[in-house]
Amino acid sequence: MALKVRKNRSPKPPGPCPLTECMAVIGGAWTANIIWNLSGGPRRFGELRIDIPAVSPKVLTTRLRELERKGVVNRKVKPTSPPSVEYSLTGLGAELIPAIEAIVAVGHKLKHRHDC
Amino acid sequence: MALKVRKNRSPKPPGPCPLTECMAVIGGAWTANIIWNLSGGPRRFGELRIDIPAVSPKVLTTRLRELERKGVVNRKVKPTSPPSVEYSLTGLGAELIPAIEAIVAVGHKLKHRHDC
DNA sequence: TTTTCCGGTTACCGCAAGGAAACCATATAG
DNA sequence: CTATATGGTTTCCTTGCGGTAACCGGAAAA
């Protein structure tokens, strides 16, 4: 009575899983929200804090630094006074938008179904 | 010297954020992988363990139960012997596929860029 | 009788992610 | 002189997520 594994599995590419890899980028707390809020154009630190009121400055800094290191967002310091810092999506960051949009779309459907 | 918040923010719907809501569904460890592996058709517990070797039975059970409760997957027990349990995506679960696919697509791009 | 297989369950544990609150440096406005 | 705005940093602490490992119950195969 051997285990018969059916072959209708979805395609499994070799090497590190692209799904896991992408989730590692957008999976952190508030990460997707941050990217989503940057999709409308550059935004300053304080503006992001207003856009996402629940995020603490510590976490916001952490996420922005991570995303910068991964090449998803760009950090530009403007030598005004007091200096203001503008964050924007890089080309790579822009490529994440369709995925985020798809997630948002599902979120709407979930709300619709849930609706209790 | 008042704070001038620019208005180029992305649209913010009232109420609970759809983005956060959807991420709560697909955000758990291995969750997206599980849904992805079910997108090719129904799959048994043991098959999923083979598809995703790194997932422990405990976590796999937890995730499947969560997804079942949220109406994303369907659990069907077949009274064979030993009994086999088949998991499949519900209609709601199927709606998640485009988002997952978008994430997978970005994962490929990430690998391409990274490529080290 | 013992083993194998399926689909789990249970107990235990470590650690890192994340929340809260306080603090900081600089420069201009009033 | 003091207040305010900006963009953080630092410290502390809790929670819970997820990993490991062992165990389980029924049935059939050997």
What does this molecule look like?
- The structure is a homodimer of 116-residue chains.
- The first copy, chain A, is α+β, with helices and mostly antiparallel strands and 116 residues long.
- Chain A has one domain: Arc Repressor Mutant, subunit A (Orthogonal Bundle), CATH 1.10.10.
- In chain A, strand 2 and strand 3 form a beta hairpin.
- In chain A, 53% of the residues lie in helices and 12% in strands.
- Chain A contains 5 helices and 3 strands, in the order H-H-E-H-H-E-E-H.
- In chain A, strands 1-3-2 form a 3-stranded antiparallel beta sheet.
- The interface between A and B is large, with 51 and 50 residues.
- Chain A binds a DNA duplex (30 and 30 nucleotides) through residues 1-3, 28-29, 44-46, 49, 56-62, 77, 80-85.
Layout of helices and strands, plus pairs?
Two copies of one chain form a homodimer.
Chain A: H1 18-26, H2 31-38, E1 43-44, H3 45-51, H4 57-69, E2 73-78, E3 84-89, H5 91-114
Antiparallel strand pairs in A: 1-3, 2-3
Chain A binds a DNA duplex (30 and 30 nucleotides) through α3 and α4.
